[in-house]
Amino acid sequence: MEKDIKEVLFTKEAIQEKVKELGRKISEEYVSKEVIVIGVLKGANIFLGDLVREINIPLSIDFMAVSSYGFSTESSGVVRILKDLDLEIENKHVLIIEDIVDTGLTLKYLTENLKSRKAASLKICTLLDKPLRRKCDLNIDYVGFEIPDEFIVGYGIDFAEKYRNLPFIATLKKEVYE
Ligand code: PRP
Ligand code: MN
Ligand code: MG
């Protein structure tokens, strides 16, 4: 696994520090609000697990699974819900957790969909943002790191379902994905 890595962009320690900072901000801004954090499977799973342990106010956790890419490597913008929420979000403060925002099409669809369920508020928190790739307007409320348009893996992010368990975020050697 490690032999496929080109360069580590964010070490385990750098990620941990950023996650703590985000957790502190979220704890302050959502204090005395009924909050539901929603992880977008599967990529957000690891970030969510670490982030909620840095949030020191009561919250509920739920997950959604969507398929945006289908069999293609390019996002089509057509998103299917594979697993919907278990919880009702009406009148709750919803915070969507993502590992990475790329074209933005997944979150565009998700936020439109969740808006119709009458949450009290709806915000987005992503660990990584690749603004150069954006294909739609999307307002992101909490961003960990902005990154250039490079192929990355680790800390939940996969290539062909591998590398999610790397504790750091890194670029892959070209020969691995070409
Ligand atoms: C990845 C990533 C985001 C989405 C971002 O998920 O985890 O959810 O793509 O891309 P976009 O901004 O262009 O829509 P993916 O669909 O690969 O599923 P996964 O989380 O299960 O890996
Ligand atoms: Mn994802
Ligand atoms: Mg993926």
TrEMBL record:
GO annotation, cellular component aspect: cytosol
Record lineage: Bacteria, Bacillati, Bacillota, Clostridia, Eubacteriales
Functional pathway: Purine metabolism; GMP biosynthesis via salvage pathway; GMP from guanine: step 1/1; Purine metabolism; IMP biosynthesis via salvage pathway; IMP from hypoxanthine: step 1/1
EC numbers, comma separated: 2.4.2.8
KW Cytoplasm (keyword) present: yes
Domain Phosphoribosyltransferase: 13-159
Root EC class: transferase
Gene of this entry: hpt_2
Record-given protein name: Hypoxanthine phosphoribosyltransferase
One GO molecular-function entry: hypoxanthine phosphoribosyltransferase activity
Biological process according to GO: GMP salvage; guanine salvage; hypoxanthine metabolic process; IMP salvage; purine ribonucleoside salvage
Primary localization: cytoplasm
Family: Belongs to the purine/pyrimidine phosphoribosyltransferase family.
Listed InterPro entries: HGPRT, Hxn_phspho_trans, PRTase-like, PRTase_dom
